[in-house]
Amino acid sequence: MKLPVKILSVDDEMDLELLLTQYFRRKIRKGEYEFFFAHNGLEALTILLQQKDISIILSDINMPEMDGLTLLTKINEMQNPAMKCIMVSAYGDMGNIRSAMNNGAFDFATKPIDLDDLSVTIEKAIEQIDYIQKAQEEHTQLESLKTDLAVAAEIQQAILPRIFPPFPENEQELDLAALMTPAKDVGGDFYDFFRIDDDHIGVVMADVSGKGIPAAIFMAVSRTLIRTVGLQGGKPGDCLGKSNELLSKESVDCMFVTVFYAIYNIKTGELEYSNGGHNSPYILRANGRVEQLPVSTNCMVGAIEGITFTNEKAQLGIGDTLVMYTDGVNEATNVQFEEYGDARMEQCLGRLTDKTCQEVIDQQLADVKAFAGEAPQSDDITLMALKRKA
Please, are residues 293 and 312 in contact by the beta-carbon 8 Å criterion? Predict the structure, then answer.
């Protein structure tokens, strides 16, 4: 049930109270209007302190103790845009009426008051108040959503591994670093790594279709599934196949995820991997060469049920670094809408072959940002590097 519009009449003429209650009796009986009465500005302020939801003030300008213009100033200090003041004065008192309008009064009426005209003015004020209150509610909801997004961003970052080096017991053999920079508050990219057994670790680089909250939710589900299946062992292609079956059955709005999943042998440097439609990683050789793994022939994960994913192999020599990334890197654009591109990425990586993993991803990110300049980031940027040290 809609609450009544509360109206405060401020006038030292006692007969106005009777006129208003008589004229608006039907609306008062129906609970549409509720009137309060004061006889000067001081009484009005007392009532406003007690009835904080009064939305319309009908105030005379010339009153004892505190006049209407002073009352209007006090009301402005309350900074409530949903409170509207209608000022009343004699027809010839246009100077004061003009001062009132210049100081924020919603409208005015002249004495003797035309109650039909006043009724129309009150209805106009109510329309304005409803509009402002709706805007305030939407603003409150927007602020709440921003807070929720900030919390969601913190949660999303928290579920990604952030402790480096991640495997201190293998620090002499392995270097690994990763970062994810979302384009919005939350993103659809993710990386992951986990120990499978004493000699093998799993590494994942993935990019969910879409942006924003839906992509972030699908990202969290995808990461959990791939990690859970991967920890059970088996070939990378089998992991993506099982993950695909689960994701494709539950996919909403045809969402999918591109995934590069590899199992790295810490002792031998062998890399067995399966690429589900993702960007082909680079290997930075210790001799300064930059090689890109073959382009994937597998489908994306979560797109189609019942498909198989092939396995491939690569070898990391001592000093070689595997660099995984999402398309937010090579498809970043500058203010002229030029793409960063594969060639620039390869040139940048070619200068980083002797760097640590953290240096590789930091300098690659810095190069992309220098290229993009003032252009807004249009996609999530995620990088991960794994280096064989011994």
Answer: yes
